[in-house]
Amino acid sequence: MHDAEDVVDTLSLKLFNCLMPEWDLVQIPIISLERPWWNLVGGHYMDEFAEAHCKEIHVREWFAGVVPGAGVGTGYSMRALEAAAADGDCFATDSLTEDYEFSFRIHQLGLKQTFVRFPIERRVPRWSFMHRRPRLVSRRDFITTREFFPDVFWSSVRQKTRWVTGIALQGWKKFGWRGDWRVRYLYFRDRKSLFTQQFMVLGYIVALGLLALQVSAALFPDRYIFAPPFENDSALWDLFYINVGLFVNRLLHRHIWTCRIYGWSQLPLIIPRYLVANVVNYFAVTRATWRYTKHLRTRERIGWDKTAHSFPGEELLAAYRRKLGDILIERGLVTKEQLDRGLAAQATTGRPLGAAIVDIGELDEDALIDVLCDQLHLARAHTLDPYGISPSLLRRLPEHCAKALSVFPLEEKDDGKIVLACAVVPDRRGILELEAALEASVEFRLARRAEVTLAPRHGYARLKLTGAQELAIPRPGQGLVEYRPIGELLIDMGAITYPDLAKAVSEAARSGKRLGEYLVAQGFIRREQMEKAMTRQRVGERLSGGLTVVADRAARDDLDPALVAEASSDA
Q: In sequence order, what are the residues at sequence separation of 6 or more whose Cβ sits closer than 8 angstroms to the Cβ of residue 272?
């Protein structure tokens, strides 16, 4: 069971499938997606769910054999569903927390429940004070369901009002205090907030009053000396210190489990978020009590208090997709040994994993593109003809932008969206740059790297040849896929790493310089290395397509000299 806004772990269904023959309810941890440091309302869910789903629910299962269903990240066996349906509605329609109620119902029927924290290694996004964007870091994680919880104060109050109403009030009416002493203790823990939240606010008022008196006495020592709250030998001091110790213990547990899930950077925020959580919980309990009292008085049905949901963006979702290596092995495209060799090549060159496996000859590039299309939910650009594209569409995308982001326009759809071919989908910043340049939304299709590299070169050369008559330009035919970009040749020669090349390609395009000139000028490579790579490239660029011969000298002068030289060589 999941909600539409959940980030569902790709391994969760396999885990449920493995455990369902033995267990009737399987619950995996629910974790809040990380919020920025300043978002205290949304951030307090991080601390609460980290502690509850890493410690408390596990203890509840061990203590009483009951795992409160969270409504998401939950698997039910057919035995449980059929048994619950035979006892009435499968899920109670008169409860605001039917998943919580379901757990206690099947426990009374003697069915088995379990809470599973299955450890895995994962690269997850982490916020830090030094960066405005989350960074991907490797951490030991669990198979979990993640989501954003409300980050606006009143939306959070409304959501927790629903939880308090269903768990503490409707659950009290439904189950009373039936069950053994362990189950009754769980009922007590779930319902005590109806009273403790009121004393919590009273305690805040008393603490603020005492703090104000101490500040006044420190600022004006000669005016009035306030009496201490208790006599020195009063037993209330012992009670006070016991409560302080319990409070410190509670904060210690919250620090431990929040650090376990989100890292050390979140520790300074736990106490501010703890205070915010108490205020939210107080208003939620008060509002739930008022609504339920009104329901008892008027017999009006308590409506579902809907809250708006936040959906994670592409950057966050990318961290929780299935790994490319797992998909390749599952489809039988590579073996574990071939994947290990690809990972070693990736560590050496810095290229993306798929490109690294293709380069060492362990995987066909077309097969890689098909996998990436399925993984990223993109279509494939089957035809990439720079001579068939509309010149008007090509002019809408500046050449420097196309080269910097390694894209090429394919078509304009009826709704005005521009379809672009790419080997690697640009990041969010690049997408915004493309949409600003094209003044339209964009859609991506995946193509081979050589095609995406050659298409802008020939397409924009064609624009410069408008009106010209004769110049030798190779028209791409069947041999287009034989072309190897100069950057790939330099990497194969060991002259440059992929991260340096990717950075140089972008900067060279934006500065208006040719890639080779920029690499040599910036000291990335030596000139003899560039000349050797260009020689290899010319040998590999013998195309099977025909040549269009033009001899207009003015047109030749407007073109990239390297393009003219290569075209003449081919001719």
A: 40
Please state, for a pLDDT cut of 70, what percent of the chain lies above it: 85
**Burial of 27 from C-beta contacts in 10 A (0-12 / 13-18 / 19+):** buried
Which of 73, 76, 75, 74 is CA-nearest to residue 145? 73
User: pLDDT tens across 279-326, in order?
Assistant: 999 999 999 999 999 999 998 888 877 777 777 776 666 666 677 888
For residue 173, the one-letter residue type is: K
Structure tokens at 5: 């806004």
Selected residue with higher pLDDT from 184 and 495: 184
Place of tokens 């698997």: 75
Q: Which residue has the higher pLDDT, 374 or 557?
A: 374
Domains assigned to the chain = 1-320 (no CATH), 322-374 (no CATH), 378-462 (3.30.300.160)
One DSSP character per residue, 230-254 reads: S-TT-THHHHHHHHHHHHHHHHHHH
CA 38 to chain centre: 19
Cα 536 to Cα 517: distance, rounded to the nearest angstrom: 17
Q: In this predicted structure, what is the pLDDT of residue 315?
A: 62
DSSP state of 332: T
Could you tell me which residue, 513 or 122, shows the higher pLDDT? Answer: 513
Q: What angle do CA 558, 559, 563 make, to 5 degrees?
A: 165
Q: With the CA atoms of 45, 47, 50 and 51 taken in that order, what torsion angle do they form, in degrees rounded to the nearest 10? A: -120
Helix (H, G, I), strand (E, B) or coil at 537: helix
